[in-house]
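Worked example 4.2. Below are the chains of a multi-component assembly; read each line carefully before continuing.
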Amino acid sequence: MARPGELERRILDLLWARGELSVREVRGLLGDDLAYTTVMTVLDRLHAKEAVLRRKDGLAWRYRPRQSKEQALADKIVRLVPRDLHDASPLLEAFLDRAEQLDDDALDKLEALIRSRRKERKRC
Amino acid sequence: MARPGELERRILDLLWARGELSVREVRGLLGDDLAYTTVMTVLDRLHAKEAVLRRKDGLAWRYRPRQSKEQALADKIVRLVPRDLHDASPLLEAFLDRAEQLDDDALDKLEALIRSRRKERKRC
DNA sequence: AAAGTCTACGACAGCCCGTAGTAGCGCGCA
DNA sequence: TGCGCGCTACTACGGGCTGTCGTAGACTTT
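Applying the procedure described above to all four chains together yields the following structure tokens:
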């Protein structure tokens, strides 16, 4: 086994890439020769954790992500950040570090977001 | 038990607050009535994971964080964010959306980072 | 009715973490 | 000089999470 959670992550990635998949489809896309029930179990657990939604399609369930990859990631990060964090810059730098591709457009958008954030804050 | 890792986190927080502590000191500051060896085991595991450094002081070890709280957080985030993240704006948007903790100060810093990003970009 | 497809449920192993006991080592004190 | 105290190293156990799968039953299709 690689790091724990690896299989769950790979399956989630497939769902993010494809939108909605059945157990059989996920199993095929994974390519490893996992047992059908292995994939089913993982999807079932993801559903129990409310990481994915599912909908009946005939006999079978079809699974889809509950939230976008970005939202999921942002949630994880928010859960990681302690409320008493005093200096946020290392955190923000870590973000921007990862984002080589931030073009001017994206930077504009972010600034706009910050401004609207400020306004909102003032109102409350 | 609360969430797994809880005790480790509390102990790390103590080290970040106090700088350097012995097992006995940590145990006292925790306040729970944990066995001495419980605290020792956790510190030992943190050391094995290289989350803390230690130095002999007479018979005993004294433990201190390997990195600042902010750096540790940034590292965790970097590990969480995939390297193939092409467009960071959705993520940052999602983050700004979720992060009620971000105070004005943090927003200022983010703006400053964006500005310096812009400048850097122009230069290249 | 038989064969195939799905699901629900149970199971087991391995890792991580909280929690703790035991054994042994070194130092200072009676 | 030997004893007790403090500290460490090692071992252990239980519970939760994850990867992995088997079995049993239900429904569909042929």
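Take a moment to check your reading of the output against the notes. The radius of gyration of chain B is 19 Å. The domain at 6-65 of chain B is CATH 1.10.10.10 (Arc Repressor Mutant, subunit A).
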